[in-house]
Design brief:
Number of strands: 6
Strand content: 5-15%
Largest sheet: 6 strands, mixed
Distance between the termini: 44 Å
Strand order of the largest sheet: 1-2-6-3-4-5
Number of helices: 9
Length: 281
Amino acid sequence: MAEEEGRRGIPSLLKPPSPPETENGSLQEHIASDITQLVGWTPLIELKRITKKDEVNIRILGKLESYQPLCSVKDRSAVMAGTVLFYLGAEVVLTDPTLGFQGQLDKLEQLKKEMPNVHVLDQFAAAANPEAHFTWTVDTAGKVDIFVAGSGTGGTISGVGKYLKMKNPSVKIICVEPAGSPVISGGRPSRHRIQGIGPGFVPKNLDLSLIDEIITVAAEDAMANARRLAREEGLIVGLSSGPNLAACLKVASKEENKGKMIATMFPSGGERYMNSTSLQL
């Protein structure tokens, strides 16, 4: 009950009014005071078509973070993609793409030295990132047996993993990373084509003690599974959702997981990637 009372996002606006009328006799309004009130809740959807086609006796649930106001899981930690920030009025500084995430971090350190009164929303280290997922992301009534998520900034898998382990110590937490840059697995960092996961280093926010297994996914498999979600489930998701589905299906194929529930994240919508050859059908 406490969790329901504290729920954020759309459900907080749709609760039956109690009492049904305000003091002056008019009906109670269900209007968000600003966009931040919409951040928090996103729906879970079961992938019944895919599991039926693959003939796996398991439930796979995907959390649609595209239902956040700005269409991404990053709404939870107040950090968005550069194009969205530019549209919202921010000045965007681009870095050499060949330098990857590390190039962005190096540029950030340079700007911190050059600019006064700088406040950094560091999704790789800010405690607000995993804390937001610990508090608001989980929505399976405690039934989940396995949670699968990309490494990324570490916020999602660490925050959700901590909450699930607290509720059920036997739950399994699986980290997904690109086969082309398997840093969490102990491999060497390298450029890869799966946007949104695999920064090339181990983020401060990634709590390795929570991770039970690491699965690497090739870029081709990631792209194929992102397209599969569109074709078979009607879900237009970003490329980083593809490796999560690929990992879920690998887990689902194991006999010891028969009858279990797997939950994963679909971190963003695919509309912004429509010009990318990665998601073209």
